[in-house]
């Protein structure tokens, strides 16, 4: 009987001891495209009573407003197809979050895609001591790292930045007079 109890104790104790820690559950709550396995925020939003020209003008004005709070670069604008593609960067050179935002407008609806999400941070190395400068990491790599408090905080900040940006885009495209305050 002692042998059986000892065997069961060793069996169950060893499985707990060798179990790997669970990955950050918040990362897997981010919207992941099943084809590319990358984090991607996307939606098709209907807007009643708005044609494509009006929606394109709203999106262009919103991007101009967004540029006052963040750095907006690599802007591609095609009014014939109703396509706007831009790269948005928020933060400073030591801690910046960036993503690609594509907006496609059609009569009565628009489609947005937020992807290519990155985080750039300084490596904080001592001056002159093997410093590589700023390191840019895709958000997908954070799902594979050991989950520490600062990494969880960074993922949450990126998620909040994108959700606030999308919420502001939605309120502007719907034609509401008071957009949300950007982070």
Automatic annotation (TrEMBL):
Residues 1-19 form the signal peptide. Keywords: Signal. InterPro entries: DUF4468. Pfam families: DUF4468 (PF14730). Residues 41-118 form the DUF4468 domain. The keyword Ribonucleoprotein does not apply. The keyword Ribonucleoprotein does not apply. This is DUF4468 domain-containing protein. It comes from Hymenobacter crusticola.
